[in-house]
Backbone:
């Protein structure tokens, strides 16, 4: 069995199960929780590891607290907003506000979601109501026009202004 880590928070054990599939155990050094899974045939170890880590975070009662924002941007999908940050647990997360479409017309924004690492990994750990999103972004500050736009979207509960 190989031992590795996922950031500073998680220790990971990787082995092989019957049929050569990956066997992955992820241990959270913060909460003591762990998850184990045998992957699907051909599923990469790192995909399983991130999925298990996101499940542990979603289950734990430890809140994700922003330590340092490292990116805020307007996505090329037509206008979703992305706020990427390091949390106090030394992991990075993405607060994502997806654009809402009606056919080919944008009509506002869907309620925000929080992902472990990237939205592209698909490891969502939390859905926000608009009120929760407002509480999440209100203590944050950044001298960045995209950040200001993201905060306005949350304050306007996803309605497109103007």
Residues:
């Amino acid at each position: 069995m190989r031992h590795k880590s996922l950031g500073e928070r998680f220790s990971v054990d990787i082995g092989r199960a019957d049929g050569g599939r990956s066997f992955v155990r992820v241990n959270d050094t913060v909460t003591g929780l762990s998850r184990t899974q045998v992957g699907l045939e051909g599923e990469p170890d790192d995909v399983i590891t991130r999925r298990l880590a996101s499940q542990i975070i979603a289950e734990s009662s430890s809140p994700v607290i922003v330590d340092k924002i490292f990116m805020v941007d307007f996505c090329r999908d037509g206008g979703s907003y992305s706020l990427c940050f390091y949390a106090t647990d030394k992991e990075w997360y993405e607060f994502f506000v997806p654009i809402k479409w009606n056919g080919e017309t944008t009509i506002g924004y869907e309620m925000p979601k929080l992902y472990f690492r990237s939205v592209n990994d698909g490891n969502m750990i939390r859905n926000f109501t608009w009120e929760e999103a407002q509480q999440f972004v209100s203590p944050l500050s950044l001298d960045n026009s995209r950040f200001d736009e993201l905060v306005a979207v949350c304050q306007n509960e996803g309605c497109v202004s103007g």
Notes: The chain is about 20% helix and 40% strand. Residues 40 and 151 are 40 Å apart (CA to CA).
